[in-house]
Queue: 2 jobs
Job 1
Amino acid sequence: MADIQLSVEDLRKTFHPGLFESPIEVLKGLSFDVRRAEIFGFLGPNGAGKTTTIKAITELIYPDSGSISVCGLPHTSLEAKRKIGFMTESPYVYSHLTGREFLRFCAELLGVVRSQQEDRISRVLDDVGMAASGDRKMGAYSKGMLQRVAFGQALLGDPKLLILDEPMSGLDPIGRRDVRDMILRQAAAGVTVFFSSHIIPDVEALCDRVAIVVDGRVRAVGTVRDLVSREADRYEVTFAGVSPEELSTRLLAHHVGSGEAWVRVSSEDRDALIRELADRGARLVSMNPMRATLEDLLMTHSEGVDR
Amino acid sequence: MRAIRAIAVNTFREAIRDRILYLFIGFAIVMVISTKLFGMLTVGDEAKIVKDIGLAAMQFFSMLIAVMMSMLLISREVDNRTVFNILAKPVRRWQFVLGKYLGLVAIVAANLLLITLVLVVMVLIYTGQFDPMLVFAAAMTMLEMSVLAAFATLFAVLTRPILGSLMTLAMFVVGHMSADLWMLTRQLPGTFTRAVIATVYYLVPNLERFNFRTEVVHDLPIPPAAVGWAVVYASACVGVLLFLAALRFQTKDLK
């Protein structure tokens, strides 16, 4: 249990928009655990319940039922909140403050010892690449700069658990790379990172483990390799000398072009195809295993869900 | 305590960097200065007229600042979702409500101080002497504004800004009609109407308890007990209103 930094169990939440509108059940018994010092991706389409889950963890909304613990503590305790660094989906900051003033305000809220505040703020500004712009009003910042300062405030309390809601959403490629690097630096320093995203390459590039959340439930949890290899079962085969239409092996897809044929088969049919190609005297050009991507997995789980 | 102070300071800082506040202050100062014009145009003791209109202007603009800034600053924090940064940290929701309220009270107090200073100087120019009772009247206005800001805080967490502003303004108006409401409960024939008005009378604080303008303008004696009761009354009202605001905010989902 000590190894679990964040535990969410059977979380349920229904919103009641108004008297004449139907209730919206957003979380339908969502459960997962995040282990110490791992980067855990919370992957799901828009409306899956990712932000609602994060808001429940950070006590911005109250779940109808279920339990959440942070580092073994109830998530509502101040002690648990001290261990969390949280960055919202969009950088919600005060345009009337400079980056440094904003961080000073956050340091006061976190109870950072005053004699250490300025050093820590300077260090954080440096970490997020904002040392040169820290004394400018945030109203004049670009989206990337706001994201960096927002990331900085999440680091200010030296968190054990970093919760990032869509940290790379809306950023240009350079901004995304910078945020990715910042996440990796924190993970290397032993901080547990939990981040939500609907951008699959980011999740694949960063995460030790992933939870796929669709329609308010976790549909699959595991390492990216586990998840995709468990369901990766296709092969793409290129050959010459036989038309795909002549083959009796079941094909998932096929195409003929420039003298070569291309087919896709399931792994169960792979050996049958190779045998048949040999029997018919075809020349095998290439055979590539096709592992299911997270995107495939997400699409599979999202099928039939209203969004 | 540090969190409450930090939220209050940030609220104060946000307000003093907002142009709307300076618009209100500008109008208030122009109004107080123009009391000299009213003094010249009106029959009677000009100094008393300057004090009377000056104090009325002070109360009116302080009320506007209290109502508008309360709504603006609390609703903006929730609507712009900057509140997420605060409440995801080790800060209780009641600390947020109290911090915002104290920041607002500090804004009103700073403005009141400025308006009082202008009025005191105006009266000093007019009569050649410093009238300390103007400062007393300003302090009583501050008590009234602290109750009004607590109402605004409660309405800001209960409803939308425009409705909240209107409801706070209604509290100001009804709060100054307490004596009339009491008379109505005695004179109206219908039991139901009488019950409704009596409910309003008991629910809305009597803001006339903080009005010592007549005594200050006409140099009448002020019973210390009335001042003491005004302080106790304001404290009780603020306590109850902030408790209700914190209670509501405590259970609110911040979407």
Note: Chain A has a mean pLDDT of 88.
Job 2
Amino acid sequence: MELHSDALRLDLPAANKYLNVLGACLNAFIERIEGIAEPRVTAYNIELAVNEIFANIVAHAYGDAPGGRVDVVVMLASDPRRLLIAIRDTGIAFDPTAVAEPDLEDVQINGYGLFLARSLMDDVAYARCADGNTWQLIKHL
Amino acid sequence: MALNTRSIGNVGVLDLHGRFDAHVAPAVIEWYGRLPAPQIVVNLVDVTFIDSSALAALAGGMKRCRQRDGDLRLCALQQPVRVIFELTRMHRAFEIFATEAEAVASFTR
């Protein structure tokens, strides 16, 4: 993803205690975008989707190794207008095909994170790169 | 997030505030272990955000209480946090009440 001059870049420790920082930054970024239908609902849903990917990285990418980081880039693109969010880590590979879709007819305790991200965004893509993992989330606005 | 807990009769009430996310969920799960009785009401009136780890903590507590012939019931959900219950259809698994009084009273029905 080519970085626009007005893109927001966050370099966060891979720890759940920073989920609130990530959420606040996303909300503040989206708040300044004009003309969004149902801005509060849209911001909440994007925050939840990104939260799920970040928490998944915290849980799985670095194991018990300390010092892991998560790089988050948020930017607004045009034609069509959409929010692009890239989330990168340098941890172990993630296998999206190994994640089963939750059984919505049953009471399941875990396994909703990726399902939620995919449900709330227009596109969620994962790629394994040479030095880590990249998630790209897209929401049309 | 600080966990504020109260007892109303034999019902344990958990008041949560602000974000209920993967950072907070372990403290809630730990609280279940100290419960004297398996009747819980989680008051979400001041909760502004719920993620899947928090949902898992609630669902795990519900299962745990039901195994002991009790229940974990929810009350006062704000509109934005309902999305996670609706997408996962967990709103059908929990008993959800508009007010804390209704949720607590439901245990004496």
Note: Residues 39-60 of chain A form the longest helix (22 residues).
